[in-house]
Amino acid sequence: MTPEPGHDCSLCPRLAAYRAANRSAYPTFHNAPVPSFGNLDARLLIVGLAPGLKGANRTGRPFTGDYAGDLLYATLLKFGWAEGDYGAEANDGLHLNDCRITNAARCAPPENKVTGEETKACRPFLVAEIKAMPNLTHLLALGAVAHGAVLAALALKAASAKFAHAARHTLPGGLTLTDSYHCSRYNTNTGRLTTEMFEAVFTKAPRVGAG
Q1: CATH fit for domain 35-202, picks 3.40.190.10, 3.40.470.10, 3.40.50.1240, 3.40.50.300
Q2: Backbone angles phi, psi at 136, to 5 degrees
Q3: Which residues of 160-193 are buried (b: 16+ CB within 10 A; e: fewer)?
Q4: 141: DSSP letter
Q5: In 3-state terms, what secondary structure has residue 125?
Q6: Closest to 167 in 3D by CA, of 189, 141, 137, 196
Q7: In the structure, what pLDDT confidence band is assigned to residue 211 with cuts at 50, 70 and 90?
Q8: What is the tens place of the pLDDT at every residue in 90-111?
């Protein structure tokens, strides 16, 4: 198993059908499983939920082209995890430093909602990704679904680490998992997540360049 699904992955019939419909409706979009962004030798892996229809599904890069990306990449730039300018396009020249970004589900779901079966079907790719990262020490889960996906990928029970914003969990094997509410417009518009709250999560992550 490789860390990335194929262009026409058919593991999730509902998502495959939605992808086919979007290829007709939006022929210039990426409209395929969205590959992870960043190098496999990174120490930090950020795990989101799934590509947004007109965000990552359009651009082909995680969290690129919608509000969630505006907040995420601004924060990564502020804390040194990224360099360059975020232009909301995959060819904007933005570079990640020692971190990698992926999603629990690699294909855009209808209404931005994936099912448990769909995240389970995509789990082997996350398992392979984690195994392929020799320097990985820290994971950041954006939302409860991503949190659960990380635990399942590591063969850990859900009860072993309870999701809570800014919670930090030491996992068996030496990995550390930090949680954050997802940086979606819904969470920020409702005040559930503020920029200050999101930035505070990164104070719990390892420092760029630290051993």
Answers
A1: 3.40.470.10
A2: -60, 130
A3: ebebebebebeeeeebbbbbbbbbbeebbeeeeb
A4: E
A5: helix
A6: 141
A7: very low
A8: 999 999 999 999 999 999 999 9
